[in-house]
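Reply to dn_fold:

You asked what the input looked like. This is it:
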Amino acid sequence: MNCLSRKSAILQAGRPPCPYGNVAAMQDDQLGIEFHPMTRIEVKQYLNWFTDPVISARMFRPTETWVGYVLDGERPLAWVAYVGNAMVGHIQVEYYPEDVCSIALAVDPSLKRQGLGAKVLTKFVREYLSSLRVEAFIEADNVASRKTFEKAGFRQTTSAPDEDGMLKYVFPGASQ
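and this is what came back:
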């Protein structure tokens, strides 16, 4: 069932209908997902996503210190994903020694539960992080995020949450 046929259910849930059709059935090349480093203008758009209670509870709200850290460094740490002219995702990357990085993902709240997050994540990792060991740390009770990362190919590597309540996931890539 595509998201346009679910219009009434989506509107009742407080989300607008999906402008892209059946995202879950589309291949990455059909969606035309594109990435670039986040700009200050896009930070303002991203801040609007924090009206969503899940984004607000799960992600750190950007501050000026964060903006300087992720935008003005040696290499981009904050990225945005676009489909057409719509910003659909935010990706944050932290780089560590020995070719390791961690990644976090947020999807435009109006586009959640359509398979877009896994497509954005998979394409970004393959295009920009393929030579690195890519890790993600996800709250154990965040089932939607865990499923998204698993659908993108990440594998859970810890059986129990750490002291912060996080489970570790790793993408099977070049630097395992």
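Helices lie at 7-12, 28-31, 40-48, 53-58, 64-71, 116-128, 143-151.
Hope that clears it up.
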